[in-house]
Design goal:
The structure holds 2 protein chains of 2 kinds. Chain A is an alpha/beta fold. Chain A folds into 5 domains: 1-93 and 175-231, Rossmann fold; 104-174, no CATH class; 248-335, no CATH class; 347-569, P-loop containing nucleotide triphosphate hydrolases (Rossmann fold); 573-685, no CATH class. In chain A, the strands form 4 sheets. Chain A has an 8-stranded mixed β-sheet, sandwiched between helices. In chain A, strand 7, helix 8 (189-206) and strand 8 (209-214) form a beta-alpha-beta unit. Chain B has a single domain (44-292), classed as MetI-like fold (Orthogonal Bundle). Classes of the chains: A alpha/beta, B mainly alpha.
């Protein structure tokens, strides 16, 4: 116990249900963390990782109890300390950084005061000394203008800034250890990359140990020294980060890593069948029912940790030797597959100069025509071909959902034309004929919210059938329900389930079945996989691709995960602040020349590879409203040319060799290409400042160079 | 494709029960809820069957046995007119319970539906009607009840409608607030995007989700209505004498409180056991309906 800061020994936590049944959450967890070490805890939802993080702080959710084992932090048994003793440890020696920084801050108190409070409480400083320490902390978490920032209320800060404030509070007393529970989940990719860099810097500067909990393998690969993989309340693999990602020895680790879409490999990855059991309900290995390597002993006797000789690699599997026989990187190549479909050369939906605004003028505004802010979404000219998947990508606030909801008729378009089979889609759903409603269906991000919790699966799927096919008899509809469920690979018995009785992946399948019950031409997918665990994400992508091939459905697919987009899309439109930046086929978008914003996004992506270092181009300051004129990305663009970008709408440009690739930027395409290639060569040290002085092309007239609306942007 | 088959064998361990059965399961585990339910059922049994088994004729006056203390013959003693207090207490809830039960159903239906529709529309009509509701709520409820009943008369159906209307105003607010939680949810958006009619959205999407709140609100309102009705009959606007009624009995017998307190205690015990029963039941009922049932089946 001497050289370890944290020693978790055979920890078992459980709770009793209302019916008096004991349910395990953690099962015999063993872990050590050395001072200054970052341990990544990774696992899918419900595997007990948050419970472990809380136990690390000496905290149990109400109703839970320690059924065995212990948590030692700095030689103190966390669960035998008194409340007072725990208080003196928490915040001073060990601090928690929660997922939602906005919830962790008091909304009615200025953030500076909140930090000073933490300093006074935990660092025993007061008055001027506390204030100085606060300014120092602001510097440490890279928040500019401490005096200004300290005077702000939490809601006046962006998500990334809030998270920095929470980190500053946690660091107030220079604790020996930080527990981070999904601190970047919910932040935009660029913000996430910035926060992770900050955390890495803190670890090197201050020698703080971290327990970093996340479901995102890319994040874990980026921050961890060592990784512990959890499954059904147990740690099943524990090793240094490189080993975990380069040669995982547990079949579950392999399956998980193989189910992540990757930028470097084309197509959809494999998914894992089944779902995790409730911890402690299986006699043998908890992964045995889903394991491709399963043998007789696996189902009868739970495996102990085996050490892989010559490495610090611990794995809880009988068959790790068999697993390690195949080289992981080769195996990885083999799991990606593409589902072939050929889009027709005929537009399904065409958008032309579409403008959407949430602004509703008040009475007094009618006399003052200048007061109208720039529209949320503006100047969108796009077309989607029949049977094609068009992906809309961009950070939060880029107008992706707004555009899709307008196409679905939930919002009116302010200006422009959206046409579909001769219908005008700028009107809201109430004014559309039923035939049109049937042809355009919507699938939402979170199946928990998009399925009525009070309806059975049968009732859910029955609704579109009743609405669009009133002539169907009850028996026909019933047969149709079963057929639809089979198409989304669910057993017909699921008809009688309620959404609460299904897993996330199953619920999303039901939502897909509901959309396809209408036999639609176009399906709008709004972040359909982002609420799902990675192991089922690939299965849903597979299903969507299959359904598209069968019925030549057109998809408009919203996603913030660029790897998912690469796996499923035919063409991509990149949006920033409701304006298009770049449109092109997948291959064109993911290779230079890039629009500066696309380059920023691609640079900030995290991949499940510990050797990869993201490249931070633009600052992570999100903007609340688009600029009144000029380029939408002007304020964050690393290559901004000055006046032209601020004043004039950039023109559409096409690289010479491209078919439909279009970039909206003042910088000439060749120059963009050169900039990117330069950067890719020297990005090893991750330098931020790049001296850019390309030739400025001054354009006359409006600078608008929109292609003919008839053909759309192809 | 070997990859995409959901594991049916695992998920079949989830027991499939109807929501009703599940609520009952949860309710059964709460001793307070069961006690409350028992009290309510006992009261309803007494109200329906008491005329057949009460020991004395509740209407028979006898000047010779006025204001007698409790005895074996008269468990709660007798009142000023020599009537048996026990028998009258048993019968005293009949009108009250019937009127309030009808009224509660009326209140839930009109208040609930109006509230849901307003929550869904959420526009100018909502704005105007809610201000009217606010205005009505600013009038003291007893005054409002007295006003309507003195104009419309004291027949039972008038009273039921009056109570249903008055207490329904509160339900409008509750139903509207509950609806607003769901109107922006994605399943309602999905229904709108499908092109469903407003009526379908109200009845199929919103109603099942707001229903629990309405039921709990209704059961809590019931105890307030009982108090309201008893107050009215205390003031003489409830039932027509000589029909026994708790409120009226309390009003008439409070003069002899010092001499024969049981003449007041009898109706008070009956009324308060019913109200306590309703409140215990309502609390347990709300818990049993599990406000987060949508999050998943209890393990």
């Amino acid at each position: 116990m001497s050289d370890c800061l944290v020693e978790i020994d055979d920890l078992t936590i459980g709770y009793f249900t209302q019916r008096g049944k004991l349910v395990h959450v953690l099962q015999g967890v063993n872990l050590q963390i050395k001072p200054g070490e970052t341990l990544g805890i990774v696992g899918e939802s419900g595997c007990g990782k948050s419970t472990l993080g809380q136990a690390m702080m000496g905290y149990l959710r109400s109703g839970s109890q320690v059924l065995g084992g212990s948590v030692h932090f700095a030689e103190q048994d966390m669960f035998s300390l008194t409340g007072r003793q725990l208080e003196s440890i928490r915040g001073r020696q060990i601090a928690l950084i929660p997922q939602n920084a906005g919830d962790a801050l008091t909304p009615t108190m200025r953030v500076g005061k909140q930090i000073i409070e933490a300093i006074e409480l935990n660092a025993n400083l007061s008055g001027e000394a506390a204030k100085e320490r606060m300014i120092e902390l602001f510097g440490q978490v890279r928040l500019p203008h401490p005096e200004v920032m300290a005077g702000r209320y939490p809601h006046e800060l962006s998500g990334g800034q809030q998270q920095r404030v929470v980190v500053a509070m946690a660091l107030a007393a220079e604790p020996e250890m930080l527990v981070l529970d999904e601190p970047t989940t919910g932040l935009d990719v660029t913000t996430q990359a910035h926060i992770l860099n900050l955390l890495r810097d803190i670890v090197t500067e201050m020698g703080t140990a971290m327990m970093y909990i996340s479901h995102d393998l890319g994040v874990i690969a980026r921050v961890s020294d060592r990784v512990a993989l959890m499954y059904a309340g147990e740690i099943i693999e524990d090793t240094v980060v490189v080993e975990m990602f380069k040669s995982p020895a547990h079949p579950y680790a392999r399956g998980l890593l193989e189910s992540i879409p990757r930028l470097t490999l084309a197509g959809i990855p494999n998914s894992m069948p089944g779902q995790p059991p409730i911890p402690g309900t299986l006699p043998g290995c908890s992964f045995a029912p889903r394991c491709p390597f399963v043998s007789d002993i696996c189902t009868s006797e739970p495996p102990e940790f085996s050490t892989i000789p010559g490495t610090p690699h611990l794995v809880r599997c009988y068959n790790w030797k068999d697993v390690l026989e195949t080289d992981f990187s080769q195996e990885l190549q083999g799991v990606f597959h593409t589902i072939k479909h050929v889009p027709q050369d005929e537009p399904a939906i065409e958008l032309s100069e579409v403008e959407i605004s949430y602004y509703r003028p008040r009475f007094t505004d009618r006399f003052n025509s200048d007061s109208e802010p720039p529209a949320t979404v503006s100047d969108i000219t796009l077309s989607v071909q029949r049977g094609e998947t068009l992906a809309l990508v961009g950070e939060s606030g880029s107008g992706k959902t707004t555009i899709v909801r307008t196409i679905a008729g939930l919002l009116p378009a302010k200006d422009g034309v959206i046409s579909f089979e001769g219908f005008d889609l700028t009107v809201e759903v109430d004014h559309r004929p039923m035939e049109l409603c049937k042809d355009i269906q919507l699938i939402f991000q979170n199946p928990d919210a998009s399925l009525n919790p009070r309806h059975t699966v049968a009732e859910i799927i029955d609704q579109p059938l009743k609405l669009y096919f009133p002539k169907m008899t009850r028996d026909e509809r019933r047969a149709c329900q079963v057929e639809l469920l089979e198409r989304v690979r669910l057993d017909g018995r699921y008809r009688l389930r309620y959404p609460g009785q299904m897993s996330g992946g199953e619920k999303q399948r039901v939502a897909i079945a509901r959309a396809f019950a209408a036999d639609p031409e176009v399906v709008l997918c709004d972040e359909v996989t982002s609420a799902l665990d990675v192991s089922v994400q690939a299965a849903v992508l597979d299903l969507l691709a299959d359904l598209q091939r069968e019925r030549n459905t057109t998809y408009i697919f919203i996603a913030h995960d660029l790897a998912v987009v690469k796996a499923i899309a035919d063409r991509v439109a990149v949006l920033y602040q409701g304006r298009l930046c770049e449109v092109g086929t997948v291959d064109e978008i993911y290779s230079p020349p890039f629009h500066p914003y696309t380059e920023t996004l691609l640079g900030a992506i995290l991949v499940p590879d510990p050797d990869y270092e993201p490249e931070l181009l633009a600052s992570d300051t999100p903007e609340l409203a688009p600029p009144a004129k000029g380029c939408s990305f002007q304020r964050r663009c690393p290559y901004c040319l000055g006046d032209v970008c601020d004043q004039e709408t950039p023109p559409w440009q096409s690289p010479a060799a491209a078919k439909g690739h279009q970039i909206r930027c003042h910088i000439p395409v060749d120059e963009l290409d050169r900039l990117t290639r330069d950067r890719n060569m020297d990005h090893v040290n991750g330098s931020q400042a790049v001296d850019v002085s390309p030739q400025v092309v001054v354009r006359s007239g409006s600078g608008l160079d929109i292609p003919q609306t008839g053909s759309g942007v192809r | 494709m070997t990859v995409t088959s959901p594991s049916v064998e695992q998920t079949t361990t989830v027991k499939r029960r109807s929501p009703l059965a599940e609520t009952w399961e949860n309710l059964r585990r709460s001793w307070a809820g069961m006690l409350g339910l028992g009290l309510i059922i006992l009261h309803i049994l007494i109200a329906t069957t008491s005329p057949y088994w009460v020991p004395q004729d509740p209407f028979e006056m006898n000047a010779e046995i006025r204001t007698l203390p409790p005895s074996a013959e008269h468990p709660f003693g007798t009142d000023k007119l020599g009537r048996d207090v026990f028998s009258r207490s048993m019968l005293g809830g009949r009108v009250t319970i019937v009127v309030t039960l009808i009224a509660i159903i009326i209140a839930i239906i009109w208040g609930g539906l109006l509230g849901i529709v307003l929550g869904l529309l959420n526009g100018r009509a909502d704005e105007i009607i809610m201000r009217v509701v606010d205005a009505l709520l600013s009038i003291p409820w007893l005054l409002l009840l007295l006003l309507i009943i003195s104009v419309m008369g004291t027949e039972m159906w008038v009273q039921a409608l009056t109570f249903g209307f008055t207490y329904g105003i509160l339900t409008v607010r509750v139903a509207r607030a509950a609806t607003l939680d769901y109107v922006t949810s994605e399943f309602v958006l999905a229904a709108r995007a499908r092109g469903e009619r407003k009526r379908t959205i109200v009845l199929r999407e919103l109603m099942p989700n707001v229903r629990d709140v309405l039921l709990v609100d209704g059961s809590m309102n019931w105890s307030w209505m009982l108090l309201g009705f008893t107050s009215l009959s205390f003031l003489g606007f409830g039932v027509v004498p000589p029909t026994p009624d708790w409120g009226f009995m309390i009003a008439k017998n409070r003069e002899i409180l010092a001499v024969q307190p049981w003449a007041v205690f009898g109706p008070v015990i009956m009324l308060s056991t019913l109200i306590i029963g309703i409140n215990l039941f309502s609390d347990a009922f709300a818990k049993a309906l599990g406000l987060d049932r949508s999050q998943g089946a209890p393990v």
